[in-house]
Design a protein that fits this description.
Elements: E1 6-11, E2 17-18, E3 23-25, E4 29-30, E5 40-47, E6 51-58, E7 73-78, E8 81-87, E9 94-101, E10 108-116
């Protein structure tokens, strides 16, 4: 039987509120059990300002997450709406997604899910 698709809820409701020109990070995803040729998608529904989503990586779950040497942008300055975007993260033991509100005049609310195999 083939691989199953997994869904990780990143933010929902008030947990997905981003202040003006601020950022929030998802919980860490343990990539050690994900196939090296896995598939990744982000489904995000947002209201308010604009959001950019980038990948952060780390070698330990509790360590300092940083942008990879070659930055990975999942969504670039997306206005309020519903988005479903595929992306390829770098090979790393742990990954987070950083959601940055890029419109200094708005507070943004969002729901977001990571879909991966």
């Amino acid at each position: 039987m083939g691989e199953t698709v997994k869904v990780m809820e990143l933010f929902r409701g008030s947990g997905g509120a981003i202040g003006k020109n601020a950022s929030i990070d998802s919980d860490a995803l343990d990539m050690r059990s994900v196939n090296l040729d896995g598939y990744f998608s982000l489904h995000m529904i947002s209201t308010g300002g604009t959001i950019t989503v980038t990948v952060l990586v780390c070698s330990t779950k509790e360590g300092t997450f940083i942008a990879p040497t070659t930055p990975v942008t999942v969504l670039d300055t997306k206005a309020a709406g519903s988005y479903f975007e595929s992306f390829s993260p770098p090979v790393a033991p742990f990954m987070k997604l950083r959601f940055t509100e890029t419109d200094v005049a708005a507070v943004t609310a969002m729901d977001a899910w990571l879909i991966y195999q």
